[in-house]
Design a protein that fits this description.
This protein is an all-alpha fold. It has one domain (2-85). 76% of the residues lie in helices and 0% in strands. Helix 1 runs antiparallel to helix 4. The longest helix is centred in the C-terminal third of the chain and has 38 residues, at 48-85. The chain is elongated, with a radius of gyration of 17 Å.
């Protein structure tokens, strides 16, 4: 979730440009797949509520994505270890 917060902060401050014009945008999308939402919204949001809503969605979606990936990894490793012990 810290990575998502960092990516979001860099995007809002203008360090990471919207779209795919540079390597930083593609790299941020690689480490934070939910960053794709920033392309749909753009950088010119007027409402503070919209900013909070998008930031929360990006951070929570990234957290749930990596938590699900870790759970699947744990499941697969536990299955493999169980078979190895038998």
């Amino acid at each position: 979730m810290a990575i998502a917060v960092g990516v979001y902060a860099a995007w809002r401050s203008g360090v990471i440009a919207p779209g795919f014009p540079n390597v930083l945008s593609a790299l941020s999308l690689l480490v934070c797949p939910s960053f794709i939402l920033s392309f749909a919204v753009g950088t010119g949001m007027d409402s503070g509520f919209a900013v909070v809503l998008i930031a929360t969605t990006i951070v929570l979606a990234n957290g749930f994505l990596y938590a699900g990936t870790a759970a699947v990894g744990y499941f697969l490793v536990s299955i493999m270890m169980k078979k190895r012990r038998s």
